[in-house]
Amino acid sequence: MCGILGITSNQTVAQELYDGLIVLQHRGQDSAGIMTYDGRFHLKKGNGLVRDVFHVNNMARLTGNMGIGHVRYPTAGGYDASEAQPFFVNSPFGIALIHNGNLTNYDELKEEVAQKNIRYLNTTSDSEILLNVLANEILDLRRKTLDANAIFKAMSNVYKRIKGSYAVIAIIAGIGMVAFRDPYGIRPLVYGKRSSSLLPEYMFSSESVALNTLGYDDEIKDIQPGQVIFVDNQKKLHSKQVVKKRWSPCIFEQVYLARPDSFIDDVSVYKARLRMGEALAKQIKRSKIEIDAVIPVPDSARPSAMALAQQLGVNYREGLVKNRYVGRTFIMPGQEIRKKSIKYKLNAIPLELRRRKILLVDDSIVRGNTSRKIVEMVRDAGAEKVYFASCAPPLIQPCPYGVDMPSKKDFVANGLSIKEIAKFIGVDKLFYQKPDDLIAAAKFGNPEVTDFCYACMGGKYPTKDITDEKLKSFENARCCSQIEDNEPEDIVEDQMSI
């Protein structure tokens, strides 16, 4: 999971890109980068949070009315600062690119790009591979300039070569900005328009909340699966459905990844989480357990917990306080760092827990370590009984599409029954969302979304190239990168003009 932004404006975009990346910081805390264009490309990227990477002196050098920005946590490649995005190639034209997702045919493409296309790769990132595939297909057009038809023709060939999940924004020097999404729409991508007295201005983003925050909300649309959007230098927007859309967006976006104030594929994340809570309430009612208070594990589970409490007719209470200066432990690199951060991420309010029967509500249970620590905390604060409800079904299969779940051994639910998981995390009773209820909650409001990718919850992988052998290679690659880069790097200065 990463966060991506692209802006083509009538004014300097560096500050807006910075502000937009702050809004999307929840999607990646490992590195950040911005590249702007004013006839030349200007780049600043490095490891760390957005506020740590960018300062007044380097922001001033990011000039231009067009630019792209990226926040990352790694699911392909390593943690080295050279793997941070954006990436750039100088031929043809000069192309800068950012990418959210994972290419599942990385190994094959790496061989093609290096041997057949004779292109040098400087990192282990699949995003650099994607950039070089795009560059090669544009080069093969043999044109001195590009119009919309040429862009769409090149993109048709790009789609034939790459597999997996991808939401992409690219700048082509002297030509314009291109954005596209994989045929299944696994990773989200939206665009918005801001009317101007001059030419219209456009912004592309992983989530709609960034468009609202920066005022690009005169018109907001999702980029459709398999659709390419091209904004030329005259700010004219061109679009084409280059390949057939198959609709299989990642359901984990609705459960956990996205901000509740975003819309993903025209479905309110907040409303979807309310519906998840309502569905859980029906299941919990049938159990006839006695509950004094429903308490969310902040922050993603709050809407679900509120709806659940209302349906049960039970008090909703805040019993856990989050330290807002600690990042999301699920996306922190390395298990040891995650374990340490759990200890000071949350603190209990004993007055809301002591001598009470508590139902904790969380978005999901992945490894189980966080859940176990939270339950211990609640019991230490004096809770009489502790129940636990997960808004997602049991997670049992690895994700090859860009969420940090690369190995079956990571999942506490793999090989254990619900009773055994309840014992492991230390609760009196455990409830999991039913897959059908989750799907109904996530798609309500957009009848066009007929299916989701919920492979991590036991569903099918939407792309047809996922095999046990390929999953094993993803696991090995991820483990190796974590071993090599198990200590966070200092912030790296990487200011350059190209």
User: How do the strands of the widest beta sheet line up side by side?
Assistant: 11-9-10-1-4-2-3-23
Helicity range of the residues? 25-40%
What's the domain count?
A: 2
Task: Tell me the name of the CATH class of the largest domain.
Answer: Alpha Beta
* Low-confidence segments: 483-498
Radius of gyration over alpha carbons? 23 Å
| Proportion of beta-strand residues | 15-25%
How is the topology of this model organized?
Blueprint lengths: L1 E7 L5 H10 L7 E7 L3 E7 L2 H4 L2 H4 L6 E7 L14 E3 L5 E6 L5 H11 L9 H14 L8 H14 L5 E6 L3 E6 L8 E5 L6 E5 L2 H7 L4 E4 L4 E6 L4 E5 L10 H6 L5 E2 L2 E2 H19 L5 E4 L5 H11 L2 E2 L3 E3 L12 H11 E3 L1 H4 L3 E6 L6 H12 L4 E6 L27 H8 L3 E4 L2 H9 L24 H17 L11 E2 L1
Parallel strand pairs: 16-17, 16-20, 20-21, 21-22
Antiparallel strand pairs: 1-4, 1-10, 2-3, 2-4, 3-23, 5-6, 6-7, 7-8, 8-12, 9-10, 9-11, 12-13, 14-15, 18-19
Helix pairs in contact: 1-7, 4-5, 5-6, 9-10, 9-15, 11-13
Structural write-up:
With 498 residues, the protein is an alpha+beta fold. The strands form five sheets. The chain has an eight-stranded antiparallel beta sheet with strand order 11-9-10-1-4-2-3-23. A six-stranded antiparallel beta sheet has the order 5-6-7-8-12-13, covered by helices on one side. A five-stranded parallel beta sheet has the order 17-16-20-21-22, sandwiched between helices. The model is unreliable at 483-498 (pLDDT under 50). 52% of the residues are buried. Helix 9 packs across helix 10 (302-312) and helix 11 runs parallel beside helix 13 (369-380). It contains 16 helices and 23 strands. It has helices at 14-23, 50-53, 56-59, 106-116, 126-139, 148-161, 208-214, 252-257, 269-287, 302-312, 335-345, 350-353, 369-380, 418-425, 435-443, 468-484; strands at residues 2-8, 31-37, 41-47, 66-72, 87-89, 95-100, 167-172, 176-181, 190-194, 201-205, 219-222, 227-232, 237-241, 263-264, 267-268, 293-296, 315-316, 320-322, 346-348, 357-362, 385-390, 429-432, 496-497. It has two domains: 2-246, Aminohydrolase, N-terminal nucleophile (Ntn) domain (Glutamine Phosphoribosylpyrophosphate, subunit 1, domain 1); 272-449, Rossmann fold (3-Layer(aba) Sandwich).
